[in-house]
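Quick look at the format.
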Amino acid sequence: MTEITRPETTVRPADITVRVVRQQLKLLPLVAILFFTVSGGAYGLEDLIGYSGPGMALLLILVTPLIWSLPTALMVAELSTAMPVQGGYYAWVKKAMGPFWGFLEGWWSWSTSFVDMAIYPVLFADYLSTLLVQQFDFHLIEENELVHWGVTLVIIWVFSYLNIRGVKSIGDSSNLFSLFILAPFAVMSFIGIIQLIMNPVAIWEPFVPPDSTMLGAFGVGLFVVMWNYLGWDGVSTVAGEMDNPKRIYPRALAITIPLVTLAYLLPVVGGWRLAGLGRLDRRLFPRSGLSYRRAVAGGMAGDWRPGQCGRPVQRHFVVYFAGAFCNG
């Protein structure tokens, strides 16, 4: 019997190249993420005129970015370009103060997110319910609590899915959402400013409400405005996914700070001119806040074209649509 022998062969592991694909965050998506992290539109400022008066409100909107947002944004820009790592402020605190304080920073941020983030899906459902009632006489979300919470869950799932897909998906979707949010505010601001040009009034008067003190109006208004200008450090958590953070992050801040300021200033000016018509009317600017829906209705029903009165507006789709997307 002949034994068949096989030649010895050396089996070597195949050369496998593993390519890590990093999702690079460009300038415009970063601007969109910054805008939505900090602002998302003029919702949240409804209480400002009612509590602080138009003059104090405008002053706070213009001054707060200089003494509050700009220093914070510059600090975040410096640290993000020096240490562009995933985790952002958590990594900075851990590096500077050790693992214990880094853990606490992460824990505190995670804990507060349950309270803060839970607000927006509920507000989305509330604005959507109001939209459907006003436009289509559809009361299902308003009357059925189960449906109301179902809408909030859908919003949570949608935005959770976008977050799971990664930062590039968030940036691209933020660009799309910005069109839905900013376009209605731009329309309202345009109408209000046109009316202000045609029928000039001192939009800063009264500087504070007649039943408020200067200090009281300043304190309440400062709280509202500071809350609306928070969030500049949030984007630091994706600094590791930015495309050349030393270059684009300062540029994104230079674009976003004026954009956020205008996103607050113009709708407040337009809404004050449209709804208040130069008067601090408690029906339009109650302690519960400024109603942008009433602003559009009151302004377009008023005399905003030379020699002609506009008819009352029964449909306010764009304002509720903006509110729903903004709070989502």
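Next, a different chain entirely:
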Amino acid sequence: MALIGVILIFILNWQWAWGILFLYWVIPDIFRGVTYFIEPVERERNPLLFWSIVISWIIMSLFSLSTLFITYN
């Protein structure tokens, strides 16, 4: 079902939906203290890399969600 959703998002070019997916991925990572970028990155063992990845996901999410209100050309 999730794969069908991602395919629909891609075909319909819904940029805002990617923002929702990014938030769906990053919020649990903040609470768990582990994110995944090629390999697991733990907040306790490598806080700078962990927060860099998490902040990147959040920025991408906000940018994608902003396409609901702003048209970028």
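The longest strand covers residues 34-37.

See the schema section for token definitions.
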